[in-house]
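Suppose you are handed a protein chain with no further information: no name, no annotation, nothing but its sequence. What can you learn? This example shows the usual starting point.
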Amino acid sequence: MANPSYPRARRLAETIRRLVGEWLEAELADQTGPLVTVTDVRVTGDLHHASVFFTVLGDEPAREAAEAWLAEATTRARTFVAQQLRLRHAPTLEFVPDTV
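A reasonable first move is to predict its three-dimensional structure. Written in structure tokens, the prediction is:
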């Protein structure tokens, strides 16, 4: 995950958190659904994989619906992030519910 001794991984995690938030805002602007919030992003040391932690405001069915939608929309989110980053390889994204 984003090791504090690797400032590049920490900066990339923060950038991905911001970009996924922008992507969610654009995707969910015209839909009525649960409020999804990105709480944290952790990037591996080699910058090839990012775990995006999220919470959902709502009841259990809303959370399950949001998880299913995010699992289906992962490719679109990665495409959006890749277009904004200046990296040779965009990291793969994994959406993980934040249970804390």
